[in-house]
Model the fold of this input.
Amino acid sequence: MDNHTFITLSVADGSEMGAYIAMPDEQTPMPGIILLQEAFGVNSHIRDVAERLAQEGYVVIAPELFHRTAPSGYEGPYDNFAAVAPHYQAITKEGLTADLQTCYKWLQEQAFVQSDKIGSIGFCLGGRVSFLANAVLPLSAAVSYYGGGIPALLDEAVNLKAPHLFFWGGQDTHIPQEQVQSIIEAVEAAGKAYLNVVISYADHGFHCDQRSSYNPDAAKEAWAMTLAYFENKLKQA
Done:
């Protein structure tokens, strides 16, 4: 298999799902990571994140979460959320769960993936899906960057399997601090391990260098912590 390629996977509900794969050149046993898109598809930014993780020694799969309503390879414009809204609104918890299980199964089937060292990371929409992944899959680590919509999944807090790392922008008007507090309180009440990082000078989408809200300092700082977290949770014995 090409180290950086799109594949097609069959999901339990009968749908076909595209996914981008990135992996290191050296295929010795290594951890796996499910990378979850923003509302704008598995675009060049998400593929770049996949490449960066692969360079750090992870096998990465980034599924196309809109595959039931959008064509394969779909990418939406950052400046026109209305264009992506129909696909965004069409996703369901059940469908996402099936997609996540499909990705997890694919990682389990790769001989060079450490089957007991799987993590997830997601941005915006993907941050919410990463929270769900931590509840429905036996993960060892999960990360959510400014995950919108997590309050709708708080009944899953009791099911979180791994420590969860949250990043938020203090300037984010899409996700007010009251909402962040409600999420953390639910995770705490469930007795689950977490790290909660609020970057006071960052806005929503601060990690994406293709968005007007990109904050280079916040992106660099959060990424360094993300890599340290994955190193601890996925690469230590």
In short: The beta strands are 4-10, 16-22, 30-36, 59-63, 113-123, 141-145, 164-169, 194-199. The two ends are 28 Å apart (CA to CA).
